[in-house]
Write a structure and sequence with these properties.
About 35% of the residues lie in helices and about 25% in strands. The protein is built from 7 helices and 13 strands. It has helices spanning about 5-15, 15-25, 65-75, 95-105, 120-125, 180-205, 210-215; strands spanning about 40, 45-55, 80-85, 95, 110-115, 115, 130, 135, 145, 150-155, 160, 165-170, 170-175. The strands form 3 sheets. Strands 1, 2, 3, 5, 7, 9, 12 and 13 form an 8-stranded mixed β-sheet that branches. A 3-stranded parallel β-sheet has the order 4-6-8. A two-stranded antiparallel sheet has the order 10-11.
């Protein structure tokens, strides 16, 4: 998994297009999640190591309310990026402010929700990065239950496994297999630096064709 300092640098400097381009260079096709997952607040960036929490729509009240959700949240660790999915989605809010508070306290770096979120204003105020497909005030109690021991899911057409690198911003979400994450980040940082040089040249008046001929990036 990617270390904290590298994740911090990636979150501060990179954007999803750079990681997508790096995946393309390595022949890692189909790593961009289908459009529709959006940040809860403007400027939010996801960057962390995937930790899957999968739920299933149930329609029944559990004997111990929220027990599995609590267990899953308490098991999070530093640099985890929660990937929350649900089968038979009942449309409730899978993630809210208190989950965000608990996740941050455990060192998690954000949450990617293949479903609805709630308490959006409060999540925005605390600046915890959360992406989702929509919003709903409906509680998850009696509607979904966490399924234990799920280590891989498919989200927006992309397989996600525990430990994969997750990067998301306003343009979309990229999932990088753990085995390729370090190399993808290396290429993304490399292109970031090249783009900075090319941008300076364009601002100074260089023609785009000449700058592209020198640096071969767009």
């Amino acid at each position: 998994m990617i270390a904290t300092d590298i994740l911090d640098r990636a979150a501060a400097q990179l954007y999803s297009g750079l990681l997508s381009d790096a995946c393309d260079r390595l022949g890692l096709v189909g790593r961009v999640v289908e459009p529709g997952l959006r940040p809860a607040w403007s400027g939010a960036t996801l960057c962390g190591n995937a930790r899957i929490i999968h739920s299933q729509g149930t329609g029944w009240q559990p004997i111990s309310p929220y027990a599995r959700q609590i267990e899953a949240l308490d098991a999070l660790g530093p640099d985890d990026l929660v990937v929350a999915t649900v089968g038979n989605d009942p449309g409730c809010g899978l993630w809210g402010e208190l989950f965000s508070t608990a996740a941050r306290a455990r060192g998690a770096r954000g949450t990617l929700v293949d479903g609805n979120i709630r308490d959006t204003d409060r999540i925005t105020a605390m600046r915890f990065p959360v992406f989702g497909r929509g919003y709903s005030p409906l509680d998850s109690l009696g509607r979904v239950e966490v399924v234990p021991d799920i280590t891989s899911v498919t989200m927006g057409g992309v397989e996600v496994r525990n430990g994969d690198l997750v990067f998301g911003d306003i343009d979309g979400v990229v999932i990088v297999p753990e085995a390729h994450a370090a190399e993808v980040l290396r290429l993304a940082f490399e292109k970031h630096d090249t783009e900075d040089t090319m941008r300076d040249e364009l601002r100074a008046g260089s023609l785009l064709r000449d700058a592209f001929a020198r640096h071969r990036v767009l």
